[in-house]
Amino acid sequence: MTQGLVYLAMWRRTLSTNHRCLGCRGGGLLKRVWSAHSRLVSGAPALPADRITALQAADLWRTRFEEEGVTEPEESSRYIIAHVLGAKTMESVEPERLTEHLSRGKTEQVWQLCTRRLSRMPVQYVIEEWDFRDLTLKLRPPVFIPRPETEELVELVLTDLRRKSGPGVGSESGQTCVEVGCGSGAISLSLLKSLPQLRVFALDRSQDAVDLTGENASRLGLRDRLQIYQADVMKNAESVLSLCGSASALVSNPPYLFSEDMASLEPEIYRYEDPAALDGGEDGLNVIKQILTLAPLVLSDQG
Ligand code: GLN
Predict the structure, then answer these.
(1) In testing the pocket of ligand 1, which one of 131, 150, 211, 265 has its CB within 8 Å of the most ligand atoms?
(2) 42 vs 142, which has greater pLDDT?
(3) What 3-state class would DSSP assign to 196?
(4) In terms of Cα–Cα distance, which of 151, 121, 176, 134 is closest to 253?
(5) Superfamily (CATH H level) for 5-26+139-298
(6) Which of 93, 124, 168, 242, CA to CA, is 20 to 30 A from 32?
(7) Above pLDDT 90, what percent of the chain?
(8) Ligand 1 atom 7: the closest Cα is on which residue?
(9) CATH 3.40.50.150 segments of the chain
(10) What ligand 1 atom has the least distance to the C-alpha of 9?
(11) Do residues 278 and 265 lie in contact, with contact meaning Cβ atoms separated by under 8 Å?
(12) 158-215, pLDDT tens digit by residue?
């Protein structure tokens, strides 16, 4: 009988990592996900007539975000300004640059990007990239933004695949993995990066996600071991099976929110992220049940 192992990610909090990360350090991801609190956005502060330093700009925008109830005000302004300075974090910018005046062009860029954040666009979409484990991924709406908790899911899968393949570099040769709902490619690309012999079939119902996974794979030099298909497991189960039957592992961070909770999501989520990547139906289990039905058919006997 097939011993299927299916990995499903849940949004658990994780501890901080050394890279760009929102929601990694306590502070209540659930609050961020579920709060229905949203205020009308008034205008952005006027572009300063006098020159301004990066630290002054960060302070000004943090205050503005706080006034407007924008979540993670401090992190938002610091990540955006670091990005404009060509860095990932303010901590990694040489201290002298933070107290120098910004050029007019950079000031305008800060204003443009921070104004997007003021309209509740997630920072990850504002700067069009984010870190996931050891990868930097391109991100754009409406493709689901990888959550820090999913990094833990990748660790679990890696541990399991390594255990199954036994010791020795390259011993995972021949292993294949199917990902249902690849989004930006975070899970598939992390697995490919960590296991140099692995091959992955990544599926998503959304063409935007398929395109973005492909783009990220090419940028990271991982395209040759990845096959990406636009396929909806709820509708085209047959074609999914014919494309990628007999896999070593099946991994997914599927939509699992209750439909009735979709209306109380934070504006960052409901305005910008694809609802199909979040809404799991009445009991949150629509896609999960389908994945569990397909699992014994997709997985190899040792899968
Ligand atoms: N697998 C992707 C991620 O975890 C997309 C998940 C989704 O669309 N629900 O980021």
Answers:
(1) 150
(2) 142
(3) coil
(4) 151
(5) Vaccinia Virus protein VP39 (3.40.50.150)
(6) 93
(7) 76
(8) 277
(9) 5-26+139-298
(10) 4
(11) yes
(12) 999 999 887 654 555 689 999 999 999 999 999 999 999 999 999 999 999 999 999 9
DSSP per residue, 103-171: PHHHHHHHHHHHHHHHTT--HHHHTTEEEETTEEEE--TTSPPPPTHHHHHHHHHHHHHHHHH-SSTTT
Helices 207-219 and 186-194: crossing angle in degrees, nearest 10, is 30
Helix (H) or strand (E) holding 200: strand 199-204
Determine the Cα–Cα distance for residues 145 and 278; give it in Å rounded to an integer: 11
> Reduced to 3 states, what is the DSSP secondary structure of residue 44?
coil
CB 35 within 8 A of CB 70: no
Quote the pTM value.
0.88
Helix (H) or strand (E) holding 7: strand 6-8
Query: What confidence tens digit (pLDDT) does each residue in 253-297 have?
Result: 999 999 999 999 999 999 999 999 999 999 999 999 999 999 999
**Bridge pairing between strands 135-138 and 129-132:** antiparallel
Distance of CA 122 from the midpoint of ligand 1 (Å): 16
> What is the end-to-end Cα distance of the chain in Å, rounded?
11
Kindly tell me the sign of the dihedral angle through the C-alpha atoms of 29, 32, 33, 35.
Answer: positive
Which DSSP letter does residue 198 get?
A: -
Q: 249-252 and 6-8 as β-strands: parallel, antiparallel, unpaired?
A: parallel
Ligand 1 centre distance from Cα of residue 89 (Å):
25
Average per-residue pLDDT in the chain?
Answer: 87
**Which protein residues are within 6 Å of ligand 1, measured from CB?**
144, 146, 150, 181-184, 186-187, 253-255, 277
The count of other CB atoms within 10 Å of the CB of residue 134 is 12
pLDDT tens digits, one per residue of 13-44: 333 333 687 876 543 333 344 443 444 456 78
